[in-house]
Amino acid sequence: MPLIQLTYLSQPFGFDDAMLAGILLDARRCNRRDGITGALLVRRDVYLQMLEGPQAAVTAAYDRIRRDDRHANIRKLGARRITERLFARWAMRDDPAQGWLWSMDDVQAGAADRADEADARRIFQRLRLSLPV
């Protein structure tokens, strides 16, 4: 079965710890059910997420995210076929994005607006290298 890897950026709408816990709970439940893995880098001003799995399941998950009012200004960075998952052991790895993502000043200066799929992939590859095997 062909796999895809989809990355997107969004802005949290009404961000707080309870909202994030709800997003992660929903994502992990649905992702386990649908055979999706991935990671979500989280900060109060930006989300960067990678979804990996069967194309139909990933597309359906992304469509649900696009309808979710906890996300604003969603921008798909890209989707590509893959042969191997980057986060195969994680239904949804979350990370506070302290060292992986741009500073708040960088985001204010437009770093997220200029980001592309290759930028996101490099960020997620650095995160994956930091995880236990």
Describe the structure.
The chain has helices spanning 17-34, 55-67, 104-108, 111-114, 117-130; strands at 3-12, 37-43, 46-54, 71-82, 93-95. It is globular and about 40 Å long. Helix content is 41%, strand content 31%. The two termini are 25 Å apart. The mean pLDDT is 86. The protein is an alpha+beta fold and 133 residues long. It has a five-stranded mixed beta sheet with strand order 4-1-3-2-5, with helices on both faces.
Essential attributes:
133 residues, alpha+beta, 5-stranded mixed beta sheet, 5 strands
Helix and strand layout, with pairings?
Blueprint: E1 3-12, H1 17-34, E2 37-43, E3 46-54, H2 55-67, E4 71-82, E5 93-95, H3 104-108, H4 111-114, H5 117-130
Parallel strand pairs: 2-5
Antiparallel strand pairs: 1-3, 1-4, 2-3
Largest sheet: spatial strand order: 4-1-3-2-5
Q: Largest sheet, if any?
A: 5 strands, mixed
- The sequence of SSEs as H and E is EHEEHEEHHH
Average residue-wise pLDDT? 86
Supply the number of helical segments: 5
- Global Rg: 14 Å
The helix content, as a percent range, equals 40-55%
From the spread of the alpha carbons, the general shape counts as globular
Class of secondary structure makeup: alpha+beta
Proportion of beta-strand residues? 25-35%
Low-confidence stretches: none
End-to-end separation: 25 Å
Beta strands, count: 5
